[in-house]
């Protein structure tokens, strides 16, 4: 499915585009140092897997790599991810001091500064999805590395993208999963409950990333192609979390860029505590196969789809070492 595809070159080009857009769109001049804290939280770090999933999904369905709606969706989902990390790291949540190889935002800017930075990043995500622009006149002109939007995308598309992202981030998605996670400390969860928790906490935003790319192209949600992409997103989303649990046990902080062993220290239920190390790895491998099966279904539903980038991303997410 991805034979002959240069994933490294593809990913490097898309990351550069996303980085340039984030550099342009995350304001440096927000009041009272807020902009500095926001930029510290989101720039110069991270794998950018969620933006890459957005762009890979959009391009699989025929979008131009420079499509404005897909780029805005890619940046928006990264802002939501960044805000969630800022809040998750705070003392009232996971109380972590290291993220992406540097001090967490609350360590650098204080708890109030981190709280506001997270709030502002969340709001900015939806601002990016709803640009107010006349044809050919962007509200914010990104640098030369980012092609200015030709048209502000249609209000119906804006609303659909906002709805997908909001549902993935809210009580039925990431925030709900985090609430379950906090309530589960010190408890023994069965496999089904643990999977449900992580489908919300981690998987919902990864699935939404895939679907945001599809929605940016106008793909209807009632189509077999949409269902296949949803199944792909759910499989890689849960696999990603299982690999995270494995790495929390097997990797060190220097490799991870965040505190290693923190789940065990916090007495949190994980796939490793439930299934054992090899059992967790086997579960991730099975989900990887499910993801590739979903791409085969997508190819049947949409023969013209270009799936190399999505397949390569699934490989990278499951086989990663940090």
Automatic annotation (TrEMBL):
CC per GO annotation: cytoplasm
GO molecular function, one term: prenyltransferase activity
Keywords for the protein's UniProt record, in alphabetical order: Isoprene biosynthesis, Magnesium, Metal-binding, Transferase
Highest taxon of the lineage: Bacteria
Gene Ontology process terms (BP): terpenoid biosynthetic process
Cofactor section: Mg(2+)
InterPro entries: Isoprenoid_synthase_dom_sf, Polyprenyl_synt, Polyprenyl_synt_CS, Prenyl_diphosphate_synthase
Record NCBIfam families: FPPsyn (NF045485)
Family: Belongs to the FPP/GGPP synthase family.
PANTHER family: FARNESYL DIPHOSPHATE SYNTHASE
Record-given protein name: Farnesyl diphosphate synthase
